[in-house]
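Example 3.
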Amino acid sequence: MAPSEPNAIPFRAKGEIPQFKEEKEGWEGYIEWEKYPEKKKQVEALLKQYDFPDPPEFQMVPLPKTNPVLTGERWKQYHSAIGLDHIVDESWRVVQNEKSADMTHVLQFPYNGEAPGDRLIKTEITPNKDHFVRNHGGVPSISADAYTLDITGLVKNPTTLTLAQLQDETLFPRQTNTVTIQCSGTRRIEQIHSYPGDGDELINAPWGEGAISTARWTGVSLKKVIKHCGGLLSPADNLEFFGADTYFKKGQVYNYAVSVPWRKVQANEVLLAWEMNGEPLPRIHGYPLRVVVFGYIGARSVKWLYEVRAIKGPSEAPVQKKEYLYYTPQVGKQNALYSNGFSIQDMPVSSAIISPVTMDQVVHQGRVKVKGWAYSGGGHWPVRVEVSGDGGSIWYEVPYENMSTKYYYAWRLWEVDLPVDAEGWLELCVRTWDNAMNTQPTYVRSAWNWDLHVTSSAHRIKVYSINTSKPATAARMKQLEAAGLSIYPITRPLKIELESDEDYDREMAARGGRDPLE
Amino acid sequence: MAPSEPNAIPFRAKGEIPQFKEEKEGWEGYIEWEKYPEKKKQVEALLKQYDFPDPPEFQMVPLPKTNPVLTGERWKQYHSAIGLDHIVDESWRVVQNEKSADMTHVLQFPYNGEAPGDRLIKTEITPNKDHFVRNHGGVPSISADAYTLDITGLVKNPTTLTLAQLQDETLFPRQTNTVTIQCSGTRRIEQIHSYPGDGDELINAPWGEGAISTARWTGVSLKKVIKHCGGLLSPADNLEFFGADTYFKKGQVYNYAVSVPWRKVQANEVLLAWEMNGEPLPRIHGYPLRVVVFGYIGARSVKWLYEVRAIKGPSEAPVQKKEYLYYTPQVGKQNALYSNGFSIQDMPVSSAIISPVTMDQVVHQGRVKVKGWAYSGGGHWPVRVEVSGDGGSIWYEVPYENMSTKYYYAWRLWEVDLPVDAEGWLELCVRTWDNAMNTQPTYVRSAWNWDLHVTSSAHRIKVYSINTSKPATAARMKQLEAAGLSIYPITRPLKIELESDEDYDREMAARGGRDPLE
């Protein structure tokens, strides 16, 4: 499917592949690693026996025109090497059951997918089947009845709660919030197209503008749950989340784990959610229970949550400590450390033009309809959206009546009839201002970073403008119509003459010929 | 070879293909069209019977990674449709006989090719086998003994001259000039990469930086030949050149024809040449006689010259009137006319970085060797070359001792040790100033034009800088060496840890942790 990626190669296993059991009944596809250091060591030894192929090169060369764009052979092989092929296969079946058929599968496994642009911005609330998915491992199958959540670590009363208990409104007030979740990979393709970057073993998926979606999430504020456990014990200041998916980093295996500061939880901005748009969570989105962290990078909104642990300082787990780092442009393979990048938590202000799409050739009469989304994380919201038809010299404000509802934690959709007089290739761009008057960096180059995260610069597309309110263009369109020809694509040769000999001679005489008089 | 281009399709000829004869003995592959209007009409009728396939799309999608890059099926089929397949086959044989094996064949037929960059700038004078070729049709085979040149039109004494007469130094003084010839397609690939443009029926070949070369040409000044014919008659002010190659335009057939103003000839800047670097012209370069117009677009330097005609005004032939036009960026398929573009004659100041090449990842100790060429047409010459390591903010002058000889009509090669402190992706660029203080447009965008000619903006490449004079980078290089790993390519995942837990903890303590104190 993705020809640039190597096919699965047969493994040269030196020992028999152990069968890592699912530890908990009713939790299929969930291998518990964190409580079993000996199993982790066994995997480390096992993975050392294999020479996994290099991930496919897709940054130095054009992306494959396939769907899935990338298949994730290396990640599949990690699973295969430790006897977990069935998780890979099952995960793809879940995609086909739960997601729209026309998703762009930017990575087949672990599954990463985004909806086509026109549907992405059709509604303020994204339908579940169109909501983007950025998974880091396989999809487990967890029975709601068997489900339990452990609250551990530096809490006064470590507790295990069933889903029924969490949903018991006499114990916990229920809340519903409209929240946009955004992957820090959104619009990564623009950074890749500009400059190659991190070749991570978990491929940095080539996202377009669709790794962002909005849903109404229902659940309980984690603050109330911690309160229920008697509160934190000193010196706890962060909460670590563990998900049932399996993650790999430099030859070691983990359950997916990240953390958020207690301050964030205290602000009632961390929800333990079991409903998405009024329906039980789809399996691919974390059934039966997931975290939803408002205004943060999606990576903290852990799916298939099985444990919340109160700790001192951020999680030492690889996704928190060693991934989702934001570097200055002079940092890269030659000098990147874990400590010299920002740890991405709050997401900055950003926006994207979804229609038209780059390279479109647009016939219009002086105005082009431009549509898209605008978002700001960290509790900020988009106040003003500005669109430019000349690469960012003159900006037009989107009228407020063309912007969707304001929420503290969600995007706004917008559209504008942009005045476009000029013809030929134009650079259309958008920038958004949030309520703290933050706006977006000017160019991709202004904020390119080695790990290719957070592409938040003014979004720019190339559009070929054909303005039929111009007499010369109107004449050509008539000429094409008479000859039964199309203006599209512009790179197809014109079969007709551009100008009659008579017109040419008249025009040349008027211009005083090609050469000076004397 | 070029998978994006359709294979030759069988023709649905409704009539028998006529055998168009070579009119002159000793002139193989030369079909005379211009003196035979009835033959031209016959071809027009014949071509109408075919539905030629669209040329391949290579502007909206990535270029094929093949060599030939494009094969020119459509142009081959034009020849095939009128029974001239043998010219196509013979032309490719000539390429293989006369040109270096490692040329980049940007178009197989009509042949367009450029030498690899390292050889292109190895010597001030380009070896014949490495000199770029931009042909518009097939390569004829003309016997020097049978060769004649007709001087016709508005001259006092229309004359036919043999090669022996032209070479007779008692009739004509012989001269040798060092002249750079440049195709207006040089660096076209940068315009294509930025924005698609004209889909011409004679494919606009995707040239790199090598459609420019320099030779010492020997022959006779056309001024002397015209004088020999008694001079021009009023109102002649242009000289039209006819070549023996066959050209097509919108369903009609021609011999290749263009013109230059008499003023240009009077300045002794138009040579009729039979020698290239001390050897008889190679067949592919116009044997036995060609025009060399100093400082003009290469298209006026007609090969296989059989006639010079004195006329009033520029040539009405399609290459002069309807090709090599330079439009303003708002002109394109929707409104382009023949009369609203400049006719490209004099070439402007331009330059290119040949080493390093774009996307190179360069390990250095604070200085990067940068090399290239600089040229200005129209009788100007490059005086100053400036190179920037930061996209054009700070410019370094190339020391004059690092620039090759000054000529009135030739390029200068240059090299410089550019100070580079920064790491990561940098934009290196070059601009040249000529003796009239003309310099290059800033960006491709500044001078993009529909026909994709004359890409003369400051040449920019992307280079990933790895500066080992920086301690952090030196440490990483040591770490890689110890692990037996390479820094190349930068997109291959690092197998080693970026930082030990101990170093991370120390660093984080020094930074005061990830989060604020209170």
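Chain A touches chain B through 71 residues (CB under 8 Å). The radius of gyration of chain A is 26 Å.
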